[in-house]
Amino acid sequence: MPSVLVVEDDPSIRQSLIEVLAEHGFAVRSAADGFGALREVTQTPVDAVVLDLGLPDLDGGDALRMIRGISSVPVLVATARDDEREIISLLNAGADDYLVKPFSGGQLIARLSAVLRRTGQVPAAGPAAAGAPVAAAVSDPLRATTVGELTVDPGARTACLAGRELRLTRREFDLLAFLAHHTGQVVSKRRLLTEVWREPYVDDQTVDVHLSSLRRKLGERAAAPRYLLTVRGVGIKLVAPR
User: Fold this and answer.
1) pLDDT tens-digit readout, 120-164
2) How far is CA 98 from CA 53, 65, 113, in A?
3) Which residues, including other chains, have CB under 8 Å from residue 121's CB and lie 6 or more apart?
4) Rounded distance, CA 52 to CA 55, Å?
5) Residue 21 near residue 13, CB atoms below 8 Å
6) pLDDT by 10-residue block (mean), the chain, 242 residues
7) Which of 107, 203, 228, 234 could share a disulfide with 103, CB 3.0–4.6 Å?
């Protein structure tokens, strides 16, 4: 099981990253600042580091250079900065790859897995989660999923119910596609905001409004669900009607 150190000062974002990585079979440790990251890397070796640049004690670029001074561990930089010169500077300073915020969990896993393959940290198939390689898990979001009479095709961006194409807004489709990719799994509203909206601070009511609209288009109500089942206090899951 590959180990990853997440260096992120925002508690909500840090927890979201930890959850995504853990679900894909990574052993995850975390640090909230640059010096904490240096302590973690020094005390217990990890297979990779996901490094935020906006840290409270050190600029992430400086933290990267300090990590490079003590370790050759692969570093994936997660940054809101998209200036080409800075990105080139980070790569020259020793970053193995970078992701510009906001990014999806799928992007994170794909980039991290690629970095680990290039550096020889894991087999080409990627790290395993519950016996399944991450490489397969990453590609699944592009495959069509059929649940009961509902078919969701992210590649074609179509959703059909009993052979009839549903007219969904962009956000409604993204929400349905994410739930379809996690069919049978309870997904929290907070995770939906992070993964679908990519805005962890938006009110949960945003999800409720879109779920209500989706239910109408799927021909169901919250009081009589067929596909979208609410688990009170936990989240929502997509299931086949009984």
Assistant:
1) 765 333 333 333 333 333 334 457 889 999 999 987 889 999 999
2) 11, 15, 13
3) 2, 47, 48, 74
4) 7
5) no
6) 88 85 87 91 89 87 90 89 82 89 85 84 41 34 82 89 93 91 85 72 77 94 92 88 86
7) 107
Alpha-carbon distances of 48 from 1, 25, 53, 138, rounded to whole Å: 12, 14, 16, 18
Q: How many CB atoms within 10 Å of residue 85?
A: 7
Helix (H, G, I), strand (E, B) or coil at 76: strand
Question: CA of 81: how far to CAs of 100, 102, 114, in Å?
Answer: 7, 10, 22
Tokens 């990251």, residue located = 37
Edge-to-edge strands, sheet with 158-161 = 145-147, 150-153, 158-161, 164-165
Take residue 164 and report the two structure tokens written for it: 């009839």
Count of helix runs (H) and strand runs (E) in the chain:
9, 13
